[in-house]
């Protein structure tokens, strides 16, 4: 079966800044990020670290959320992601604050950076420069220099790998290099499957884009995949310029589930996507959550809304996460093309930042 739309020339016509090329380059991003991270010496007072806070917003925060899920069963200390102007009250000299701002100028992250200094926390910075980069040098802090020139959402890999390196340097997790190498090999294989030249029905990324061309994405997953579902939501909003939502099991069964069915004509506006992982262990996806997902799917489909399931691939959890992240990223760019928009510009965000700078 051949897909008649989304030919390579159609993608190139609208994707003027080559967002698709950035997505397809994720395997190389992993190689580069690993080499960069290994070149940085992390100097911390390891014995005094009792908790970790990753401070960031948007594309610079989702890496922290993913690491939090990846290391949930390994970390011997609490890890919190702070998407705010204010650090949690508990932050003190026993806290490791990872200040993550791709641009180095995110105003919320700058605020938390100053608070971390005042609290006497140990600070490591992830940035391509900007004010945070300058402040890191002024204060003699460990800094992971990120490559410049990326839209922040395209720098996800460069924001995740340094955090894994830091946690490994703290002796909190095992060496992430083997899992990164598996992820690279898997993404290279998936890149062949989802590339624009593949015009067959096996190109799941294109299939998803077509399914979403007249509907809004609603991404559901088990709780360990919350950050992945969040990434899907972000990418559909920023790349395809459409509203999107996400939620997780079991929480959605205690509230959102009840919203299905009353307004069937509005329900038809959504396309539900299940992020599945049949290989997950019982500690990764609690068995009763699988039953919840099956029962919920039946209830949703009673409202006349189909549920599309996509499955993670790979062995390591990092590889499984990125098999789905890669698919969502590709689908969001293809949906942008179907929507007739360039996936790279985020004019509303740029406008908001400009106006906030005047206040």
Can you walk me through this structure?
This protein is of the alpha/beta class. The protein has two domains: 19-175, Rossmann fold (3-Layer(aba) Sandwich); 179-338, Glucose-6-phosphate isomerase like protein, domain 1 (Rossmann fold). Helix content is 46%, strand content 14%. The chain is built from 14 helices and nine strands. The chain has a five-stranded parallel beta sheet, sandwiched between helices. Strands 7-6-8-9 form a four-stranded parallel beta sheet. It is globular.
Concise synopsis of the structure shown:
The protein is of the alpha/beta class.
The first-level CATH class name of the largest domain = Alpha Beta
Per CATH, which architecture of the largest domain? 3-Layer(aba) Sandwich
Give the helix level as a range of percent. 40-55%
Query: What are the segments in which pLDDT stays under 50 over at least 5 consecutive residues?
Result: none
Structural class: alpha/beta
What is the CATH superfamily of the largest domain?
Glucose-6-phosphate isomerase like protein, domain 1
Shape: globular
Domain count: the total is 2
Biggest sheet overview: 5 strands, parallel
CA radius of gyration is 20 Å
What is the terminal-to-terminal distance?
55 Å
Strands of the largest sheet, in order across it? Answer: 2-1-3-4-5
């Amino acid at each position: 079966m051949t897909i008649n739309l989304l030919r390579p020339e159609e993608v190139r016509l609208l994707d003027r800044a080559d967002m698709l090329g950035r997505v397809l380059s994720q395997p190389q991003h992993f190689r580069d990020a690993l080499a960069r991270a290994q070149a940085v010496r992390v100097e911390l007072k390891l014995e005094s670290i009792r908790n970790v806070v990753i401070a960031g917003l948007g594309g610079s925060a989702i890496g922290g959320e993913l690491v939090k899920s990846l290391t949930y069963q390994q970390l011997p200390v609490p890890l919190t992601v702070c998407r705010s102007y204010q650090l949690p009250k508990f932050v003190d000299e026993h806290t490791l604050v990872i200040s993550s701002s791709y641009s180095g100028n995110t105003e919320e992250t700058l605020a938390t950076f100053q608070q971390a200094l005042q609290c006497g926390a140990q600070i490591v910075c992830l940035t391509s420069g900007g004010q945070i980069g300058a402040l890191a040098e002024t204060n003699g802090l460990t800094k992971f220099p990120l490559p410049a020139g990326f839209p922040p959402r395209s720098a996800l890999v460069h924001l995740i790998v340094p955090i894994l390196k830091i946690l490994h340097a703290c002796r909190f997790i095992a060496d992430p290099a083997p899992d990164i190498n598996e992820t690279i090999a898997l993404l290279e294989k998936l890149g062949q499957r989802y590339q624009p030249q593949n015009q067959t029905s096996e190109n799941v990324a294109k299939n998803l884009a077509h399914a979403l061309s007249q509907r809004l994405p609603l991404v559901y997953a088990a709780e360990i995949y919350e950050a992945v579902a969040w990434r899907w939501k972000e990418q559909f909003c920023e790349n395809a310029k459409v509203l999107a939502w996400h939620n997780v099991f079991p929480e959605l069964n205690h509230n959102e589930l009840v919203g299905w069915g009353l307004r069937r004509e509005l329900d038809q506006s959504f396309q539900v996507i299940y992020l599945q992982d049949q290989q997950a262990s019982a500690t990764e996806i609690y068995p009763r959550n699988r039953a919840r997902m099956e029962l919920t799917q039946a209830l949703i489909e009673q409202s006349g809304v189909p549920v599309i399931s996509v499955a993670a691939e790979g062995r390591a959890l990092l590889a499984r996460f990125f098999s789905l992240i890669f698919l969502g990223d590709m689908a969001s760019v293809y949906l942008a093309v179907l929507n007739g928009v360039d996936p790279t510009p985020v004019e509303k965000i740029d406008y908001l930042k400009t106006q906030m700078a005047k206040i």
